[in-house]
Specification:
The chain has about 400 residues and is an alpha+beta fold. It has ten helices and 20 strands. The protein is globular, with a radius of gyration of 22 Å.
């Protein structure tokens, strides 16, 4: 398998995209506007109407005009946005919970006129803002394969996005190669700014990948030989109405013959066209869609793509040991550990990241799934030490108060 760089272009080609800071309206022409004017944030395939708001080009386009307008007849789409909300490839929306990292996509697509296929895997890593979770980086690994399935060449990119209060954005792009030991080694390739509207190609395996900041200040990555397009806008604290996150567009594929694999550890949260959230819920024996997709998101990160913290490994391992009935009990009683932003903020305190809340979820899984009583006692001790103030507000934090009141009786 060839894993070295085939060709590298460092020259960025000119583009027709306009700088989002000034904005362009197809109705009114080029108009200078304040930075946070809504029309400065119109996405691709959207236009500014009456110098006031954005909408998709026509009724044949679906989506959010400030993030992505697309034709559902042409492409499959998956989105992981905001705090967080998922749109699966089956066009279903659901909230979900995940900490630190999750496998967003694992999909095989055709190479079009070229023989063979591309396996695309994307892992999203997040950062914590108070108790909320937002995408920070996305790793995309592409395996080029012969029709027999044999991998001929592999390339990896990691993109990390950052924002400033004044609305300016930057993306740091890393290129990676896979060593003989299977580990990915990265080098910093380029940093793009909000004003980087020229298309910058970077080529591995005779397959140019183009990076460009499009309208709406969204970084677009196009893998040309696989017809894959990824978009990434970091969260901007000052404009909370603006959609942020990651989308991936792939060539339209037919639904699979079988709904879900028999063993789906490391299955991606985008699912597949034709695979529904109800399929996943039924497979896991759970009663709620968001519980089923959250379980998948919390346990699916593959260790060959990203280094996983000991806390995340331990949490995933404990959750994977749960039987369906005990997993349901865990979500019924303790899902506030996954969904309550004030609670997560209090448990994590000033320590960055998600290690503290992942420890707590591991203790809860040990208690509900294996009956380990000292794990439950550890939860109560942490709650009383760090989230005592929330217990005095039983109406707002009813599940938390009820959990503490049970005092580690039989799970």
């Amino acid at each position: 398998m060839r894993i070295q760089v085939a060709l590298l272009f460092l020259t960025c080609m000119s583009s027709g995209f306009t700088d989002g800071t000034h904005g362009v309206s197809s109705v009114s022409g080029t108009i200078r506007r304040p930075v946070f004017h809504k029309c400065n944030w119109c996405a691709e395939n959207a236009l500014c109407v009456a110098n006031s708001y954005c909408r998709c080009l026509s009724s044949s386009y679906w989506g959010n005009p400030y993030f992505l307008c697309y034709k559902p007849t042409d492409v499959d789409i998956c989105e992981l946005c905001d705090d967080p909300v998922l749109t699966t490839e089956n066009k279903e929306n659901t909230s979900l919970s995940y900490f630190s990292s999750t496998l967003m996509m694992d999909k095989v697509v055709s190479r079009g006129r070229l023989l063979g296929t591309c396996r695309i895997r994307a892992v999203v890593t997040s950062f914590r803002l108070l108790g909320k979770s937002f995408p920070r980086c996305v790793l995309v690994r592409t395996d080029l394969r012969r029709p027999t399935g044999q991998i001929t060449c592999t390339f990896v990119y990691k993109i990390c996005g950052y924002s400033r209060p004044d609305g300016t954005l930057r993306w740091q792009i890393f290129s990676g190669v896979v060593g003989k030991d299977g580990r990915i080694r990265y080098t910093t390739w380029k940093t793009l700014l909000s004003s980087s509207t020229r298309a910058c190609p970077h080529t591995y395996c005779h397959c140019p990948t183009y990076f460009q900041v499009s309208r709406g200040k969204i970084l677009i990555m196009r893998i040309s030989c696989c017809s894959v397009k990824l978009g990434f806008r970091p969260f901007i604290k000052r404009i909370e109405w603006l959609k942020s996150g990651i989308f991936i567009l792939t060539t339209k594929t037919k639904p699979p013959f079988s709904p879900l694999p028999g063993y789906f550890k490391n299955f991606n949260i985008c699912l597949r066209p034709g695979i529904t959230l109800s399929d996943l819920k039924t497979k896991l024996g759970l009663s709620e869609h968001h519980h089923a997709i959250s379980y998948l998101a919390l346990t699916n990160t593959p260790q060959d793509l990203i280094t996983i913290s000991p806390e995340q490994t331990a949490m995933s391992s404990s959750l994977l040991k749960c039987s369906a009935d005990k997993l349901q009990k865990f979500f019924d009683d303790a899902d506030f550990m996954l969904t309550s932003h004030p609670f997560i903020k209090e448990i994590c305190g000033t320590k960055p990241g998600f290690s503290e809340i992942m420890k707590l979820v591991k203790y809860a899984a040990d208690w509900y799934c294996q009956g380990i009583s000292h794990s439950c006692q550890s939860i109560l001790a942490l709650i009383r030490a760090r989230a005592k103030g929330l217990l005095s507000r039983p109406k707002k934090f009813a599940k938390l108060v009820r959990f503490v009141a049970l005092n580690c009786k039989n799970p």
